[in-house]
């Protein structure tokens, strides 16, 4: 099942790491550490193989992919040996990258994206293309037309006003082109009634939002522990220090607010109440593509005895996110092939603020994901038998 992976923000750190990883896996130069879909419980015939993935994408930046990979190698994110070994392959991917459309009406920009997606699918003989948003986080206050239906939205996009934020315009273009959509950011994306209706009309699945790679991943394990042990969490405060482009983007108050809102949801919905404290995000340029999170949890046990827990998480965001991007592309492609449409709640395991989530606890999300993938493999085996 030849599958296209079209990355919004394709020259960014996460996208570049995803591309180098996909190429290295295809060439047998690395193992699949971090790729959830390669665990024995999930691996199977319904998922496109790494050798079947073809990458393209849009970006407003023009830095050559090889230069971005070399910079990430110098920063300690990528092994330099892989970048050197994959120079020709990276140059081949470069040919599939396109500048993000700018100027004109939003309808014209959407049409340009549709053209690029359709052309990409045709030129590479792809069965389907999954669009994945790994671009910068949008401000929380970006307005969007929650009241419009698909027809009214199409008409509005042809006017002079900016109707949709960029992530939603890409979701609109993806659905128009017949492509599933995944939002790895906390941006609005497909979370609008008109876009949900358009996805249903076109028979397309979509997933999101905001990849769960660090501090929130730990919260999704620890918060259920406190709840199941009937311990009272009094406060939960966190400080996140980020470098790189993501840190610079989140230094903007509106984008920062969108990210913090996404990170906090797991506590309220797992514990059933909101403990005192919050999450603070700061940009520390010196950290480069790495991030550090420090959390302090205070809680009370039997007879009101006060206790505390502290943990520190230090990791490379791109190396944590990239395998999940590949996982989500494979899973969403398989869901599309199986005829799934609408929000893929079963992929909540991967997100801080998942669509239609039934649970925010990682263990429960894992069971849901495992059962979902088993159904996909069962259906795929049936198809092959017929």
From TrEMBL:
Source taxon at top rank: Bacteria
Pfam families hit by this protein: Inos-1-P_synth, NAD_binding_5
Domain Myo-inositol-1-phosphate synthase GAPDH-like: 214-318
Regions that span the bilayer: none
Annotated Gene3D superfamilies: Dihydrodipicolinate Reductase, domain 2 (3.30.360.10), NAD(P)-binding Rossmann-like Domain (3.40.50.720)
Family assignment from sequence similarity: Belongs to the myo-inositol 1-phosphate synthase family.
Identification of the protein by name: Inositol-3-phosphate synthase
Species this protein is from: Micromonospora coerulea
């Amino acid at each position: 099942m030849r599958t296209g992976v079209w990355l919004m923000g394709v020259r960014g750190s996460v996208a570049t790491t995803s591309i180098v990883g996909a190429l290295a896996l295809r060439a047998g130069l690395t193992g699949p550490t971090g790729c959830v879909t390669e665990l024995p419980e999930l691996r199977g015939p319904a998922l496109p193989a790494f050798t079947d993935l073809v990458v393209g994408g849009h970006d407003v930046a023009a830095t050559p992919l090889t230069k971005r990979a070399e910079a990430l190698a110098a920063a300690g994110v990528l092994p330099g040996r892989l970048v050197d070994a994959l120079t020709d392959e990276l140059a081949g991917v470069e040919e599939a990258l396109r500048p993000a459309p700018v100027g004109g009406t939003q309808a014209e920009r959407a049409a340009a994206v549709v053209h690029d997606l359709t052309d990409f699918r045709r030129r590479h003989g792809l069965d389907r293309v999954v669009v994945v948003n790994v671009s910068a986080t949008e401000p929380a206050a970006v307005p969007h037309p929650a009241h419009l239906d698909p027809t009214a939205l199409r008409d509005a996009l042809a006017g002079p006003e900016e109707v949709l934020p960029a992530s939603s315009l890409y979701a609109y273009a993806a659905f128009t082109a017949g492509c599933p959509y995944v939002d790895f950011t906390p941006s609005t994306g497909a979370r609008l009634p008109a876009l949900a209706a358009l996805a249903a009309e076109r028979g397309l699945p979509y997933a999101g939002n905001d990849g769960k790679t660090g501090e929130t991943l730990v919260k999704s394990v620890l918060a259920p522990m406190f709840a199941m042990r009937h311990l009272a969490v009094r406060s939960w405060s966190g400080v996140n220090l980020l470098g790189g482009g993501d840190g610079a983007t989140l230094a903007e108050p509106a984008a920062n607010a969108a990210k913090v809102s996404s990170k906090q949801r797991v506590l309220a919905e797992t514990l059933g109440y909101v403990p005192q404290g919050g999450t603070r995000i700061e940009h520390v340029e010196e950290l480069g593509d790495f991030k550090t999170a420090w959390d302090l949890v205070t809680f009370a046990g039997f007879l009101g005895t006060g206790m505390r827990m502290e943990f520190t998480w230090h990791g490379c965001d791109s190396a944590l996110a990239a395998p999940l991007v590949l996982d989500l592309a494979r899973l969403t492609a398989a869901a599309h092939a199986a005829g799934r449409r609408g929000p893929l709640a079963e992929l909540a395991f991967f997100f801080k603020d998942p669509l239609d989530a039934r649970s925010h606890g990682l263990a429960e999300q894992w069971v849901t994901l495992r059962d979902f993938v088993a159904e996909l493999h069962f259906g795929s085996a049936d198809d092959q038998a017929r």
